[in-house]
Amino acid sequence: AISLGCWALAKQICGLQLHDAFVASYVSDGRLARWGLHGQSGSADPEAAKQRLLKLLKVEASAQWQWRRFCEEQGAADAAQTFSENLVAEFLERQGAGQLPEVQMASAKSLAQLDELRKTDASAAWHWGQHCSQKAMGIANPKRVPGRVVLEFLDSYAAGAYEPLQ
Questions:
Q1: Buried b (16+ CB within 10 A) or exposed e, 11-22
Q2: Which pLDDT value is given to residue 16?
């Protein structure tokens, strides 16, 4: 593992570009190096940039939300699945510079409530999928959507906003 001091020096010398908060949370135990996310966010190689994005989407819970929101704001919601070269490069640059909005993920308590509800009520599972289609850009994994999306569903379900399925 490298220290944050070493990270700052490497960042300065090599021009490394990752959001400092992301680095601070992962540098101390060496995960950054194991995931291969160290290095420049911009690249002349579109395939390498795409692979960096795919790794980021896999390891950073909020990245999938940020990526889809970014594509939607660029008027290219379909590009979230096709990985347009220009969008990937711009997203990685903005994400690396910390220019994307922070995403507050759901708490462990909210996730446990949702999991229990979906396990015990088949209609809740179906309604969760519909909720995600409308409110979460189709992201159905509750660990990958903002906490407000999970809480909104739980509150609406508790208030009886959803009809039971037959």
A1: beeeebbbbeeb
A2: 44
